[in-house]
Amino acid sequence: MNLILLGPPGAGKGTQAKLLEERRGLKQLSTGDMLRAAIAEASALGREVEAIMARGDLVPDEIVVGIIGERIQAPDCARGFILDGFPRNVAQAQALDEMLDEHGLGLDAVIELGVDDQILISRIEKRASETVGGPRADDNVEALRKRLSVYTEQTAPVAEYYRDSGKLKTVDGMAPVDEVSRQIDLVLNKAA
Ligand code: AMP
After folding, report:
1. Which atom of ligand 1 is found nearest the CA of 60?
2. Whole-angstrom Cα distance, residue 59 to residue 71?
3. How far, in Å, is the centroid of ligand 1 from the Cα of 8?
4. Which phi-psi region, left, alpha or beta, contains residue 8 (left: φ > 0; alpha: ψ -120 to 50)?
5. Does ligand 1 lie within 6 Å of residue 27's CB atom?
6. Which residues of the chain have pLDDT under 50?
7. CA 173/CA 10 separation, integer angstroms
8. What pLDDT sits at residue 102?
9. Is 147 labeled as catalytic in the residue annotation?
10. What's the structural domain count of the chain?
């Protein structure tokens, strides 16, 4: 089963992706985590994306499309994958369709976690205060505002892109974590 988790920053995509990994044996593919790992290693890629990420902008499409193109074919994705943080704009969604076609893969569902902006801001502030080793470089009010506006302008249209194909399922991301998981399972059991 191959899934996309869509939703604004702080909506709980990472939390739900990890729970889905445990429940269904799928592999979480988080472009944000992969880019942060590149920064931590101070690789050439990390140096290229560090400032872009810190200010809350999107890194170039070819970088993330390249990363995902390699990962979806890896053996650890044989039982399926959960895309977390990708695609972030319609061009990435189109590139994903091409890559899936090329490898004879399909998408079973696109799950959108709906959350309102005020709740997001308080969730991110909480995450920033609780993260061991200090907050992420982009967990501050200025970068968060930027990430929310990027979401509205560039990522929200991705939901419309998938709505047309009937794959988009919206779940209330403001419910408690267990309840969100339960709702996701209901949606996936229907999609299966
Ligand atoms: P995330 O951990 O998904 O919130 O992503 C953190 C940051 O990584 C984003 O604000 C972007 O700068 C970058 N990023 C992650 N995924 C993508 C993507 N699919 N396209 C472009 N930039 C991305």
Report:
1. 21
2. 18
3. 11
4. beta
5. no
6. none
7. 10
8. 95
9. yes
10. 1
Enclosing domain of residue 168: 2-191
What's the pLDDT at 132?
A: 76
Q: Going by DSSP bridges, is the β-strand pair 3-6/81-84 parallel, antiparallel, or unpaired?
A: parallel
Which residue, judged by its Cα, is nearest atom 11 of ligand 1? 58
Which CATH number covers residue 140? 3.40.50.300
Specify the pTM.
0.93
Question: Tokens 């790992």 sit at which residue?
Answer: 37
C-alpha of residue 31 to centroid of ligand 1, in Å: 6
Three-class HEC string of 11-78: CCHHHHHHHHHHHHCCEEEEHHHHHHHHHHCCCHHHHHHHHHHHHCCCCCHHHHHHHHHHHCCCHHHC
Q: Is 115 exposed, middle or buried (0-12, 13-18, 19+ CB in 10 A)?
A: buried
Closest residue by Cα to residue 21 from 141, 181, 166:
181
